[in-house]
Design brief:
Domain TM2: 96-142
Signal peptide: 1-23
Number of helices: 6
InterPro entries: TM2 (IPR007829), TM2D1-3-like (IPR050932)
Shape: elongated
Membrane topology: Multi-pass membrane protein
Number of strands: 7
Keywords: Glycoprotein, Membrane, Signal, Transmembrane, Transmembrane helix
Strand order of the largest sheet: 2-3-5
Length: 183
């Protein structure tokens, strides 16, 4: 069975005109979870080695990172599958967690840890009382280790990105607690 040249020509014309894959150009700021991946794993430079946080982290705790949309989605901003999105981060100002903890353990009775973190009044008080007779030193070691006490300027500690950082989960009057089976 041979096809007529008219049918073959029509099929070739349709194959050239109709795209093989359908791509939608949309505003990628409106994508739902599962339609994008942030930060883009093909980019290896999204973590600042100095602060161990996302590059460009501001005092408001936001950083713009490059994200990757799923196949078939073209972003109207960049005309390809990548776009930028704000992600939460911890703004740091150069205070290292391990330095603060070591100062608290070894020189906490002299208040050096509090001077380092920017609390000169408490540091002077600890210096004059020998760390509140070593009881204040013990309390400060626990408070710094649990990251309850941080730098006085409101920044976060410099901790490795996948290090021992603590994320505090708080509840208020609008928090709903799901009862467990053993309650």
């Amino acid at each position: 069975m041979s096809r007529s040249p008219w049918i073959t020509g029509t099929l070739l014309l349709l194959a050239a005109v109709v795209p093989a894959s359908f791509e939608a150009e949309i505003d990628c700021a409106d994508l739902r979870m599962g339609q994008f991946l942030c930060p883009d794993p093909s980019r290896r430079d999204h973590i600042d080695p100095k602060t161990q946080q996302l590059r460009g982290c501001t005092k408001e705790g936001k950083a713009k990172v490059w994200c990757l949309a799923v196949d078939g989605i073209v972003c109207s901003e960049t005309k390809n599958g990548t776009f930028t999105r704000e992600m939460p981060c911890k703004w740091t100002n150069g205070y290292h967690f391990d330095t603060a903890l070591l100062l608290s353990v070894f020189l906490g009775m002299f208040g050096v840890d509090r001077f380092y973190l920017g609390y000169p009044a408490i540091g002077l008080l600890k210096f004059c009382t020998l760390g509140f007779m070593f009881l204040g030193q013990l309390v400060d070691v626990i408070l710094i280790a649990t990251q309850v006490v941080g730098p006085a300027d409101g920044s976060a500690y410099v901790i490795p990105f996948y290090g021992p950082g603590i994320a505090v989960v708080r509840s208020d009057n609008w928090t709903y607690r799901l009862p467990q089976d053993n309650w």
